[in-house]
Amino acid sequence: MDGFFGQRGKQRSVHNSYFTLPVLFAMLSNHCNMMYNHPMSWLVLVLMVTSVVLIRQFFLLKHKKKINWYFPLSGVVIMLGVFFWIAPKSPQAQAQDLAPPSTAEIQVVINSRCIGCHATHPTLMDAPAPKGVILETEEEIDKHANMIFIQAVQLKVMPLANLTHITDEERALIAKWYEGRKP
Ligand code: HEC
Q1: Is 37 exposed, middle or buried (0-12, 13-18, 19+ CB in 10 A)?
Q2: Ligand 1 interacting residues, C-beta cut-off 6 A
Q3: What digits encode the pLDDT tens for the residues 111-156?
Q4: In the list 9, 26, 42, 75, which could disulfide-bond 54, CB 3.0-4.6 Å?
């Protein structure tokens, strides 16, 4: 009987160990918005978990003196595949099918998605405009063009938590506007 429970315990701990890395990954993933902001973020998670479980399997077998390189290799291939798949597309690729919009056209997007927070008197927050970034006029929008592009197109951290539901089309529009302003 003693032996039975001992073995059970060992087995459970091995099963748990499969999930050490996936849980760590899931906890840290909120720092990688490319992963959780992906339209198919559930699949990103499933693939990443599969990948680390395969790698873990290699080490478990290795403890039993069985070396099987297919486990870590397929794990790494899956992981690299995910990175390649979710890598941010170049702004050119995102925006190529649109004519460059004017700042006035971009202001329509900014008005509906950003100035709830980035205004002299924000309506979405009980605080002054974050980092002093006010986007109420065309001049202000032009002045912050670089940061708008980085925050809303490249990093996609703005609008904050996408509270104002900006669309991919609107982000692409901002990208095209930004590219079009360059001499
Ligand atoms: C719900 C409120 C909210 C909305 C909506 C919002 N922002 Fe922000 N924004 C913030 C906060 C908070 C910060 C400060 C973040 C920080 O401290 O890192 C910020 C910072 C910024 C900055 C400065 C970043 C820096 O590091 O200097 C820019 C530029 C910006 N936002 C652009 C935008 C654009 C463009 C939009 C619309 C597409 C937008 N934001 C929508 C809350 C918001």
Answers
A1: middle
A2: 113-114, 116-118, 124-125, 130-131, 133, 144, 147-148, 151-152, 158-160, 163-164, 166
A3: 999 999 999 999 999 999 999 999 999 999 999 999 999 999 999 9
A4: 75
